[in-house]
Amino acid sequence: xxxxxxxxxxxxxxxxxxxxxxxxxxxxxxxxxxxxxxxxxxxxxxxxxxxxxxxxxxxxxxxxxxxxxxxxxxxxxxxxxxxxxxxxxxxxxxxxxxxxxxxxxxxxxxxxxxxxxxxxxxxxxxxxxxxxxxxxxxxxxxxxxxxxxxxxxxxxxxxxxxxxxxxxxxxxxxxxxxxxxxxxxxxxxxxxxxxxxxxxxxxxxxxxxx
Length: 210
Prior knowledge:
Elements: E1 9-10, E2 21-22, E3 36-38, H1 56-59, H2 68-73, E4 74-78, E5 81-84, E6 87-90, E7 93-97, E8 102-104, E9 107-108, E10 116-117, H3 118-131, H4 135-147, H5 163-177, H6 183-192
Antiparallel strand pairs: 1-2, 3-10, 4-7, 5-6, 8-9
Helix pairs in contact: 3-4, 3-5, 4-5
C-alpha cells in the first residue's frame, strides 16, 4: 500500500516548482491514492511563501542525496514578497515545502489527509514496538518504509544502541513522513512535550502575519 518514490517523476523536471508529480497509477494526488486509508480534507499550504517556511532544523532531517522526499517535498522557489508604502520586502529564493502545493489546475502534488494513511499506521506500529522494547521489529518497520522513500540501493538503518535511540529514530521518521505543520504534527508535539527523552520536538518556523 506504499508508493515507491523511485517510481515517481516530475511532469516538468525543468521547472520543479511548477511541476506536478506523477505515479505509475496517476493517483498519488487524489483521495484514491493507495497510501490513503481514510480521507478527510486537510490544510495543504503550510510551508509555502506567505504562510511559513520550514526551519533549518526540519530541512536537516532529510539527506538530499538519498531521501526522495527531499526531492519532491522541498523545492526552491520565490519567497514572500510585498510592497507597502513604497517599501519592498522580498525574501528572495527560499527552500519551501511543496508536498500539498497545487501546481496543476486543482490537483495537489501529493494527496494529504487528516484521516489515516498506511505510512502513518506503519510508524504507529514501529513506535509501539520501540516503546515496548521490541527494537528489531521497530527498526524493521522503519526500514520497510524507507525502502519506498529512499534512492534504490540506500542501506537500511543499522540497529542503534539502546531503546531511546530507536524511539528517536521512529520519531524522526514521523517528522519526515507526516505533513509539515499539520494537525498530526501538532498532536505529536502535544503528546511529546511532556517526554523529556524526546529531543528535537521544539520545531521552529518563520511566519509572515498578513
